[in-house]
Amino acid sequence: MNKKLLLINPVQDARLSLGIVAPIRVPPIGLGYVAALTPSDWEIRIVDENVEHLSFEDADLVGITAYTSNAPRAYEIAEQYRRRGIRTVLGGVHASLLPDEAIQFVDSVVIGEAESVWPQVVRDSESNGLKHFYQGQLISLEECVKHRWDLYKLQDYHTKVHVETARGCPMDCEFCSVTTLYGRSYRQRPVEDVLSELEATDYRNLLFMDDNILGHGEIAEKRAIRLFRGMLERRLNKRWACQVGIDFATNSDVLKLAKKAGCLVAFIGFESLNDECLKSMNKVRNLKVGASNYKDVVRRIRDHGILVAGAFVLGGDGDMKDVFDRTTQFILDSKMDGAQISILTPLPGTRLYNRLKQEGRLLLTRYPSDWKHYGFTEAVFKPKHMTPDELEEGATRVYRDTCSMVKSFKRALNSAVQSRSSYGGVIMFSYNRGFRTFWLRNCWHIKDTRSSRIDDWQPDASLTSRESCDEEAISV
Ligand code: SF4
Questions:
Q1: Out of 139, 190, 212, 332, which residue is the most buried by the measure of CB atoms under 10 Å away?
Q2: Distance, CA 173 to ligand 1 centroid (Å)?
Q3: pLDDT for 175-234, tens place per residue?
């Protein structure tokens, strides 16, 4: 009989199960890569707790991925399986940043990119020889493994196809864990390889997962141009969204080509309307453009029929109490099609985390259970010019004031006209309402239970794989 591998993407909080609303759900693509590298005599199932309840079915090996805010839930799941004698392996960003914390709750931790070590993990599991740590290396994307898309419940995700054309980022933003984890390397897949992947799928709508589809530097931009041209030459007729840097607006030829190749929405990290905040975040490219020119950036991209969804981070040291009204006003005045508001969150291992810790400004530090509050909707530190409550209430107000039913509808109409696509209107309406719902649900649930839940769950000390816990590692 085949052995069974269960791959799990946990929710942030078990009581918030199925909490990520459909329009903003993205399948856990890392698990698809791991599945593709598992020998064919293993039966594999992927369970994404954002789309289905975890029934704790039987398995021979359980692989879990986690970022920071769902790490406590990952530990809970691992604890359940280990009680039943089933081996557990944890990978993903959080375990890679804090492997000494993670190993207390699982049998093995994969640090870094799992692709280079996963076949070894499976072999060791088959021979009952799992090691505590596996150090993954940065893999070359020249021969990228194809996903096991067949293992996702694609009907539960708004966009069915998620394509990665590059990994890493050479920039060094203070709050970002990408560079902490992978250094400043930037790796790209060959254009022909990406085009073949696109050609192989029948789905029309897709999302490029790269942090910046144009990449970094002249060579990367030329590659993006080759990709857009290739999509046209092969008549792929796709409709896509991408993340891109703010300098997307500077080259009108690239904008025209992207639009022709099917670009519908560009997600851009504006981050802050305050140059002081941009400086402390080390957002070099945004600073070069200058926050005072952001409206122009939105206008130039939208003039080409490409919709703009902006990301803003509130609570930086330069933000005063008027930041909420200013952000709301900017989103509405610039006619930006969608907006994602986050509260500045110090993820472990980042320079931001280290700075706030040094300044004695971290508020929720009973790790690991407090990691669940590090999901970008809560103030987990003392802001400089307001109280944590004022920061949370202000961020909620921005969502309420920009994404009410009436405003979302009017903005979506505008998006449909601008992109000459009714689908563009529908997608932006779902996006804005989706983020608003997600935000409010998180606020009501997690914040209401914040103080009372801190001691709810204590990891079972008898399950730790070390004689004693590494206090230094737990408290980071
Ligand atoms: S926030 Fe974006 S630009 Fe900055 S380091 Fe992270 S991935 Fe790169």
A1: 212
A2: 6
A3: 998 887 777 888 999 999 999 999 998 899 999 999 999 988 888 899 999 999 999 999
